[in-house]
Write a structure and sequence with these properties.
Layout lengths: L10 H14 L2 H27 L7 H13 L17 H12 L3 E9 L13 H6 L11 H14 L6 H10 L3 E3 L2 E10 L4 H11 L5 E4 L26 E8 L2 H14 L2
Parallel strand pairs: 1-5
Antiparallel strand pairs: 1-3, 2-3, 4-5
């Protein structure tokens, strides 16, 4: 009754043994692990090179943007790159990490508006009283330190300080000092560099009594900083190395989705 098969051979057992052997030492997994290690080494090499040319937190915002632009547009010689590989596709992410690591732990997120558009903020004032009285709003006049606050208080009391939002917006549009070309600070909030950007912006706008707005990049010359990144410290600061500016712009549905994503991430 032998059908020509090999006596004692269990075909199913042979198949299972072959599958087990392939799973225990998959060649594709070893290959992928090697590739990942090589990619990580290459990324670390590029990051070290770009870090060495970063002008630092105390450089002006313009200098930081120029640095990022140079990195993004340069075509380095193969002789200068040990791996002789092209720049990683995640260049912008690497630059943002360099900025984050160099930033001080405590920073100040500030929202700015072009002087010529300052009065248009009246359309986004959901709570005028909160805006006028907010401790997060730019001082009137812009003063810093204990002495400055005292003088600002005396100015408000005896020299016709802001009695309503229109007076503040008029000051922003005329006499407020510029922090970047043509733009003035409307308000700021101290935070950690690792705080979520969208959530912190939302908190600041709430403290200022503003609604229907979000933060946009001040500079779009460098692709790495042409949009909002996840953490506050991923974004470049002003020359003081502390204040990180964002332009006040009208919000849309995508910004609301971003806020929800941040909240979900914080709960994980």
């Amino acid at each position: 009754g032998d059908a020509g098969g090999v006596e004692g051979l269990d075909i199913q057992t042979v198949k299972e043994d072959k599958m087990a052997a392939s799973v225990s030492s998959p060649r594709w997994l070893v290959s992928s692990a090697d590739d990942l290690a090589a990619d990580a080494a290459t990324l670390a090499e590029w990051k070290a090179r770009w870090s060495s040319s970063y002008p630092g937190p105390s450089a002006s915002l313009g200098e930081k943007v120029k640095w990022a632009t140079r990195v993004e547009t340069s075509t380095p010689s193969r002789r200068r790159t040990r791996s002789a590989k092209e720049k990683p596709a995640v260049t912008g992410d690497v630059l943002a990490e360099i900025v984050l690591e160099a930033s001080p732990e405590e920073v100040e997120l500030c929202v700015v508006v072009p002087k010529e558009d300052a009065k248009e903020l009246s359309f986004y004032l959901a709570n005028e009283e909160a805006f006028v009285n907010s401790e997060y709003r730019a001082a009137y006049p812009d003063t810093r330190g204990f002495f400055g606050k005292v003088m600002g208080s005396l100015f408000s009391r005896f020299a016709g300080g802001p009695k309503d939002a229109d007076a503040i917006l008029d000051w922003l549009a005329t006499d407020a000092p510029e922090v970047v070309e043509g733009a003035v600070v409307v308000g700021s909030l101290k935070c950690k560099k690792t705080d979520k950007l969208n959530a912190t912006l939302k908190e600041l706008f709430g403290c200022l009594g503003l609604a229907g707005v979000t933060g946009g990049p001040v500079h779009e010359d460098a692709e790495a900083f042409s949009f909002k990144r996840e953490l506050v410290g991923h974004n470049p600061s002003l020359a003081d190395g502390r204040r990180i500016p964002f332009l006040i712009v009208a919000s849309d549905d995508d910004d609301d989705d971003d806020d929800e994503d941040d909240e979900e991430g914080e709960g994980m």
